[in-house]
Design goal:
By secondary structure, the chain is mainly alpha-helical. The chain has one domain. The chain has 23 helices and two strands. A two-stranded antiparallel ribbon has the order 1-2. This is Glycosyltransferase RgtA/B/C/D-like domain-containing protein.
Length: 466
């Protein structure tokens, strides 16, 4: 310990001096930096114990830390909100978390009078609890929650690095993909807000990482870890959880390195465990049969396409800090700021599969191209939407390398790419069926795009020899 202290003495002194100076101007920011430093120390300690830490990975994580911390500070202090006009789920999450922290600090560990908790399920129910606990330990300031997001971003980059390594990539390849993911525009923006997307993406990638490990060599230890990750993912975004669940089932049937006898014996235990998970957590039936029967019909699909993600353009007040009551939240309907995000939609042509199956399939292939490559310039209805070109133009170039990686993997019969491809197709396919709002799409497709990016190195034989 003494040697470690001496080695990093100068860094520790500089950090403490900077922390004191920051605390003079912004106590909340100083607390957030302390939390971030603590989480990073734990991360590097765990990596060292697992034998995963090396200079290449350390450099990558530090770069990711600097990039995402810079993004958080810029967005927070300059109030950079070009799409939502300063309103959105991140403020709701902050309100809920603040009330939870207030209750906990008073010794009240119930959720009485916590907005939305008394009304049943809410999209930010569990994520706001995590932030509420963080606020209880520190103080209820949004910047602290956003700095926590920086750590989640570092984990996200770490997981992409490990996935590239798991499928046969080199340290150099993993570093380059991690660097690309660090600059992923949608993640850089949404991951810097108090939104659960950063956590969902990290859970999805960690689940896929353990799925890859199980394909290589099945162990009950890794399956239990995968199972816990899957359970967590269901609680935060259940449809991404289903994508991971069915990816695992597909791989278990067709990819796992198990002889037929073991596969049958293990299935007797695994199938019930996985099948009852949606019922236990969400009351959605065995393998989610209830939610699928209620969602995959013409009426439900029309509702999601036309209403659920396409509400009338609303306006919200700039100041939402006046209180943490139900009335203050409902008051956010007061006109003030337009929500550009809800204008970023396209109209779907109503075609029945029974009446015109060919046209129906052609339309959905077209919609799938919107999800995979959009938004296109002609679909942008406001000048601020052209920010999306910072993501789509590089994506078109990177996608060519993704195709090359997939092609080389097929030629080399690299079965480890199958779970990554299947997961991405399931996520993008679900979005294609239900959502036509680009503001929502660019958030939900983050884990699918990140997973596809990990396939790029497989197309470069020369680099793989390094």
């Amino acid at each position: 310990m003494k040697e470690l202290f001496n080695k990093y003495y100068n860094f520790i002194v500089i950090f403490l001096v900077v922390l004191i100076l920051v605390a003079v101007f912004d106590k909340a920011l100083a607390l957030g930096l302390i939390v971030l430093a603590f989480l990073m120390l734990i991360t590097f300690f765990v990596l060292s114990k697992l034998g995963l830490r090396d200079k290449t990975l350390t450099r990558l994580l530090i770069i990711a830390l600097i990039i995402h911390l810079g993004a958080v500070l810029f967005i927070y202090y300059f109030d950079f909100q070009p799409f939502g006009g300063g309103a959105g789920g991140y403020k709701t999450c902050h309100l809920i978390a603040t009330k939870i922290a207030e209750n906990f600090k008073q010794g009240n560990f119930s959720f009485q009078r916590v907005p939305y908790y008394e009304r049943g399920s809410h999209p930010y129910r569990y994520y706001s609890l995590i932030i509420g606990v963080l606020y209880t330990i520190t103080m209820p300031e949004m910047i602290i929650g956003q700095i926590f997001q920086v750590w989640l971003a570092v984990l996200f980059v770490l997981l992409t690095y490990l996935i590239v390594k798991e499928i046969g990539g080199s340290n150099k390849q993993a570093f380059l993909i991690g660097l690309i993911v660090s600059f992923y525009p949608s993640y850089l923006f949404y991951g810097s807000l108090l939104l659960k997307d950063a956590l969902v993406a990290s859970l999805a990638l960690s689940g896929l990482l353990f799925c890859l490990k199980l394909i290589k060599k099945f162990s009950w230890k890794n399956f239990i870890i995968f199972y816990l990750i899957l359970a967590s993912l269901f609680n935060f975004r259940f449809y991404i959880g289903y994508a991971l669940l069915f990816t695992f089932i597909f791989c278990y049937l067709f990819v796992f390195n198990l002889n037929f006898r073991k596969k049958i014996i293990y299935a007797i235990i695994i199938i019930p465990l996985l099948g009852f998970l949606p019922e236990i957590l969400l009351n959605q039936g065995f393998f989610g049969i209830n939610v699928f029967s209620s969602s995959f019909n013409e009426e439900s699909i029309s509702f999601y396409q036309e209403k659920a993600y396409n509400p009338p353009v609303q306006t919200y007040p700039e100041n939402t800090d006046s209180g943490i009551t139900d009335s203050s939240i409902s008051a956010t309907s007061t006109p003030s700021i337009s929500l550009f995000g809800y204008e970023s939609t396209w109209k779907r042509e109503k075609v029945s599969f029974r009446e015109s199956p060919f046209k129906f399939l052609v339309n959905y292939l077209k919609y799938f191209s919107y999800i995979l490559f959009g938004p296109f310039p002609w679909q942008m209805k406001s000048p601020v939407h052209f920010f999306a070109l910072l993501e789509t133009i590089p994506w078109y170039i990177l996608f060519l390398f993704i195709i090359k990686g997939i092609y080389q993997s097929i030629r080399n019969r690299n079965k480890l790419v199958l779970p990554l491809i299947v997961f991405s197709l399931l996520v993008l396919g679900a979005i294609t069926i239900f959502i036509n709002n680009f503001g929502i799409i660019t958030r939900i497709r983050i884990p699918a795009f990140a997973v596809l990016l990990t396939l790029i190195p497989l197309g470069f034989k020369k680099i793989r020899k390094d």
